[in-house]
Amino acid sequence: MSLPSSSAEEPTVEEHTAGEPSAEELSLARPPASQDTTASQDTTASQDTTASQDTTASQDNTESGETSPPTTGPLPSSVGPGPGVSAATHRRRGLPKVVGAILIVAGLLLLADAGVTLVWQEPISALYAHFKQESLGKDLQALDRASPPPQARQELARLHEERLRVAYLAGVLQRHAKAGSAVGRIRIPAIGASFVMVKGTGTSELQNGPGIYPETSFPGVPGTTAIAGHRTTYLAPFRHIDALHRGESILLEMPYARLLYRVIGSRVVLPTDVSVLDSVGYSRLILSACTPLFSASHRLIVFARLESTTPLGAALVRSQGARGEQAFGEEHTRLPPVLKARQRLLAPLVS
């Protein structure tokens, strides 16, 4: 048997196991040593530069008294919560700010309202009363143009004296006017007041304007006519009646007559002193308002005496030779009291 020949082919060094990269491929894949060295040197130089800058900045901050936060440790994430959570969080955080702003604005408005009220009058109620006065003015114009009902015309046909016709028409208006409706106008030249009057002195009636006490006589009926009005709210029609002096005029314009009164005095009384509304021996006018300002603890009462009456409209006697509107003076007779028992407090109940 012959041995295998030594010249048989043997695997050489260059041969390699299948599936393994050859030395030549490895040499191609490996970067040159010079490049590795250069990259390492660049990285080292960059780190040295950064360290040097950090050291310099730290020294500068130390000299200036400032301390920079450490740069080690994880940096805070700039990524916030999801959209749903973020919106809810913003709403919760923004709600106190909105509420605070609303409260601040409300406080400023209240302060402004108080300041205007002190200097002038309460502005919100004044705006309401202004529109009510405009509406009542139109109602009063319609009342002035209206003819008396048939029954009243029959009664007027039997009355030939204007004084009696005025008193009769005043009684008709007092009986048929509804609470809070326009019945006439009050003018006080000395204080620049001119307001439509209403029937009644309740809270809602006095929000519309000065009101005639229903327990007293309507202007033109012999006796005491009493009118109440606010001093700080709802246009404050009687705010300055404390400035009236003896002899100054007060004019009441009714659909049937124009009545002129002269101030004769004033007095401060308790709200329970309803005796000031009693009838006396002459026709008079009483103005009633709260005092002091912004308080309803007392009532300021201004007294005025009837000086003259000028018939208007249906109160005029239409006869040949009549000279039109002519004023007549007061008839001096002893007048019975007309105060009803149900009146217990002088209006208005608020300032």
Main attributes of the structure:
351 residues, alpha+beta, Sortase, Chain: A, eight-stranded mixed beta barrel, 8 strands
Describe the fold and architecture.
This protein is α+β, with helices and mostly antiparallel strands and 351 residues long. It has a domain at 117-315: Sortase (Sortase, Chain: A), CATH 2.40.260. The protein has 7 helices and 8 strands; from the N terminus they run H-H-H-H-H-H-E-E-H-E-E-E-E-E-E. The protein has an 8-stranded mixed β-barrel with strand order 1-2-3-4-7-8-6-5. The chain is elongated.
Work out the strand percent.
15-25%
The CATH topology of the domain at 117-315 is given as: Sortase, Chain: A
Describe the largest sheet. 8 strands, mixed, barrel
Distance between the termini: 145 Å
For CATH, the homologous superfamily of the domain at 117-315 is named as: Sortase
> Mean pLDDT, rounded to whole units?
78
- How many alpha or pi helices? 7
Order of helices and strands: HHHHHHEEHEEEEEE
Radius of gyration: 49 Å
Strand order of the largest sheet: 1-2-3-4-7-8-6-5
Quickly give the CATH architecture of the domain at 117-315: Beta Barrel
Say how many strands there are. Answer: 8
* Residues in helix, %: 25-40%
